[in-house]
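Input for the complex:
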Amino acid sequence: MPATIRDVAKAAGVTIGTVSRALNNYADVNYHTRERIRRIAQELGYRPNQMARSLSSKHVKNIALILSGFLEDTMLNDFETMLMKGIYQFASEHGIDIAMYVINSKTQREKSYEQLCYEHNIAGAILFGLKTNDPYCAALSASHRPCVTIDTEVRSPCTSNVTLDDVAAFDELTQYLIDRGHRKIVLVHGRKNAMVSMERLAGAHQAFVRNGLTLTHDAIIYTNFLREEAAAGVDAYFRTHDPDSVTAFLCMSDMLAIGAMEAVKSMGCRVPADYSIVGYDGLEVTNYTDPKITTVDQNIKKKGYEAARLLYDMLHGIRPAQKLVLPHTLVERGSVQTLGSE
Amino acid sequence: MPATIRDVAKAAGVTIGTVSRALNNYADVNYHTRERIRRIAQELGYRPNQMARSLSSKHVKNIALILSGFLEDTMLNDFETMLMKGIYQFASEHGIDIAMYVINSKTQREKSYEQLCYEHNIAGAILFGLKTNDPYCAALSASHRPCVTIDTEVRSPCTSNVTLDDVAAFDELTQYLIDRGHRKIVLVHGRKNAMVSMERLAGAHQAFVRNGLTLTHDAIIYTNFLREEAAAGVDAYFRTHDPDSVTAFLCMSDMLAIGAMEAVKSMGCRVPADYSIVGYDGLEVTNYTDPKITTVDQNIKKKGYEAARLLYDMLHGIRPAQKLVLPHTLVERGSVQTLGSE
DNA sequence: GCGGCCTACGAAAACGTTTTCGGAGACCGG
DNA sequence: CCGGTCTCCGAAAACGTTTTCGTAGGCCGC
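Predicted:
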């Protein structure tokens, strides 16, 4: 039903080749012809069929957002949403559309990265949720296709990473607690061999050492980034430890902080009066808890936006692959108590 | 680089037509040939190029998720996320991929629904976030393309709606408050001419009348579904009304409930001891507030899943367009106080 | 007046599929 | 032995673009 390039050509009395060149701003088409074609295309409501376009052209191809683990509930909630908002914000500003594909570790094994890209004529992709041992990580480094990973480090000539300085940020967060008089700090840890967990652990460790503290294995609660696990972990901690053995919970994510807070409250204790809690990520939801959680804001939306912009620039050859480290912000809210000097 | 149908054909010693038919389970290809082609395709890692496929075929086309207003912050948060999870859950189970397009009222004016579909060879779509006066609503009823709207009512032979019985659900929620002794109820209202607002209002009204109560204009706080507005509204209410003039806030969405709760707390009052609050939607975030909010769970994820399934069935001709009303669940949590009989 | 170089456009191949049509060969009944 | 009906596959058109190549015509300089 809608007009094809042929209809435009017929109406303008030229061939389809000319229409295509005119509309794509090729140099070798007369100014008047070009304008006439433009006008007619406009009148007919002509829109090029993207399928045909990307089939034919080696040049204009699609850009994709590939989400791994979206369906699993780990790393819950508005992280991905915010990321998407940033990405689609950029897309909308630049008149491009971005297709979204949901995968997981299993489907990665079934269909290779290159196959996925080939299937959908993907010129470049933004990938989020990749674990360091996922098949696609290796595939990425072998690929010549521009792509941007978020929060996963992949070194290769065509791969950019956007991330933040997790070590420094978590160091800063830890220091924040220490500055407020906390010495007895329990770390609520994320998935054990996740990149982000290790970096954050390093940050905490760094801050501990600098302040002459030691992070004992005893004071670490391991989780898989799940709220329930944090709650259960804190609960278990108190069953095996003196209530006075801790004054603050240093959580590797906001969801863990929420879980920890739940557990503390369910014991009849108050936050931050009895125990302080800090989170990490800057999820929206930390504004809705009571008290609001002091956390490190990753500025997730900006992260998405910058990832999209970076990929866009790479595809247009105006920016090389690079590691982009975004700034973070420690946002003070109400979940930390300053301890008097005893 | 990846194998095309031609490579498979060459390796199998047949023509591309045969390969295509074999792989698409056409009847007129010999069993052994089919198996041989299957095996070779497998070995070569052949995957059909979706662009070419949907360009050529009138049959196998794409299915899209079209989100309107995703970038605007109204109707915040995990509503869309949950919807997506449901939709992509279905997609993943059925081996289809669903492309996502983000639009708004403005882009709807710039590019018609048909054009959008044509551009991307969209056979059917799931639409969410449409306002009743959006251009695409009219376009949908004129279209012959199967589609499913979520929470927007569009009557046409090819359009299904998945929704819930908003009137009944809100009635039930209102009744819940009344059953617990609340008579002085303030309604925190959503966007004025939104379909959902009107339905929920009807539900509230219905319950009021049935119980011999009246809903006075004075006891309604209008918002645009924004948390801040709810907070400001409640704040303003208390500046102009007696604190005893209300015992419960009946909110048209969870976000509004969160806003209302904020305002109540910032006045130094407690929930639910001093004021009860109920929300609506069943957002995840209502589990993280303190107290957890009693609300009507829309089962958003299921909503997405069912919408995808419905569209899928329509596209395959095994289910007609219909209005699908999903069940809701009132979930009791901690934000409502039962008032003693005075 | 002729070879050369522009400019502007047409012709046609190519992208990778699906699908229609036709027919070669096998088989069978009479 | 012949006409008919299957089964299976090849040939080729079609989908709507982009892009390469070729060339007609104009203009210039000599």
